[in-house]
Design a protein that fits this description.
Urate Oxidase, urate oxidase activity, alpha+beta, Uricase, EC 1.7.3.3, binds uric acid, oxidoreductase, 24% helix, two-stranded antiparallel ribbon, 5 helices, 282 residues, purine metabolism
């Protein structure tokens, strides 16, 4: 039976890049991790070791730094588009370039209401992310999102009405802590949007929905967030969410003669519920 190469792609991952934008009275600081993945006519490289069509991943890495000087001045989605267009335009053997960018969120320091011109503080676990795919025929898809976003609320969350069998010990509750480390990715309907404004609106919608929702489960809140993003942002085609359930379990204080009025919890790392879903139109 003949054997042949099936799906394949290659590129440089984790091109870690920081960028200072020097303005007259203040600096901006950005730090990203960029991954490049090329799909195309790379069969000969695999089957006979002919590298004639293999743009080295080292060159790809250098290209990311070189183009950053002129083009990494705005949202990561735009830098991703610049890189994807570069690799597709310069390399006819490339049928698709995919660029993924994860951004660390340094915040400018502020003292007594005064923004510091050149000192920053890390943004915690939250990261902003974008992915861009450009095909040789010009088809462009842009995704944006976030990960590592810790969300927690101390009211308006419960979990009742689930099936019970001989292994069920979980008590029903109408008042629990709801906590997650949210990952979200949404696909845009176009590649020429104001990505900064879109991102900030969607992130705010996500937070507002989480906070305001009368949650009957993580699944219920995941869907509510996706629904709200789609309802209030025409430029979003679909939203995928990952919302692990970071359990806070009431601690039994009865052995110590105390009543726990839902105030003291064990914050557990593992195991944890893992809830994912994609919300789409139509
Ligand atoms: O919101 C929840 N969804 C579940 O599927 C689940 N399962 C569980 O034990 N607790 C919870 N909470």
């Amino acid at each position: 039976m003949p054997i042949k190469l099936a799906a394949n792609a290659y590129g440089k991952n984790a091109v870690n890049l920081s960028r200072v934008l020097r303005h007259a009275g203040h600096h901006e600081f950005r730090q990203v991790s960029v991954s490049v993945q090329l799909t195309g006519d790379f069969e000969a490289a695999h089957t006979v070791g002919d590298n004639a069509l293999i743009l080295p991943t080292d060159t790809q890495k250098n290209t990311v730094y070189a183009l950053a000087r002129e083009y990494f001045t705005g949202p990561i989605e735009e830098f991703g588009l610049v890189l994807a267009r570069h690799f597709v335009a310069r390399n006819p053997q490339v049928s698709k370039a995919r660029i993924e960018i994860v951004e660390h969120l340094y915040q400018r320091m502020s003292f007594d209401g005064q923004a510091h011109p050149h000192a920053f503080v890390g943004g915690g676990s939250e990261k902003r992310r974008a992915a861009v795919e450009l095909r040789a025929d010009g088809t462009t898809t842009v995704w944006a999102g976030l990960k590592g976003l810790l969300l927690l609320k101390t009211a308006d969350s419960g979990f009742v009405g689930y099936p019970k069998d001989e292994y069920t010990v979980l008590p029903e509750t109408t008042d629990r802590i709801l906590a997650t480390e949210c990952e979200a990715e949404w696909e845009y309907t176009a590649a020429d949007l104001d990505f900064e404004t879109q991102y900030q609106q969607i992130r705010t919608n996500l937070l507002r929905t989480f906070a305001g929702h009368q949650s009957l489960s993580v699944q219920h809140t995941l869907y509510a967030i996706g629904e709200e993003i789609l309802k209030s942002n025409d430029a979003v085609k679909e939203v995928s969410l990952v919302m692990p359930n970071k359990h806070h379990i009431p601690f039994n204080l009865e052995p110590f003669g105390q009543t726990n009025t839902n105030e003291v919890f064990v914050a557990t790392d593992a195991p944890f519920g893992y809830i994912t879903g994609t919300v789409v139109r139509g």
